Amino acid sequence: MRTLLQRVSQASVTINGQIKSAIGTGILVLVGIEDSDNDSDIDWLAGKICRLRIFPDEAGVMNKSLVEVGGALLVVSQFTLHASTKKGNRPSYIQAARPETAIPLYHKFVQQLSTESGAAVLTGEFGADMKVELINDGPVTIWMDSKNKE
Which residues belong to the active site? Predict the structure, then answer.
């Protein structure tokens, strides 16, 4: 699984002109799923995301986690995180899981984030044409890949 995390002061997802989900302070999680992903990828990423110390403490140092600041989570599926640009100019998405594999893993990931954070997790709509708006706070943007745990 690949995620792109953005610490936000606000973020929303609009589908067909209607806001589906919106959060204030928290993390926007863009997530891409591949065929080889499983529960261990979900557990590792969800735990890391909720415990990452990327929110400022009283001294302005990034020293607090999402849980400590009571932040919200907005998760948006994004198969393009698995784009391969190695050959030619048209990205290949062959590494991205097909919906029959990705959808159940996506739902498990959202549930695990809720369990780890102790809060409801808002989402986009898997496979929909979504408009994502955000105010990246910092800016803080972090790339995480469960197959490359750096």
Answer: 78-80
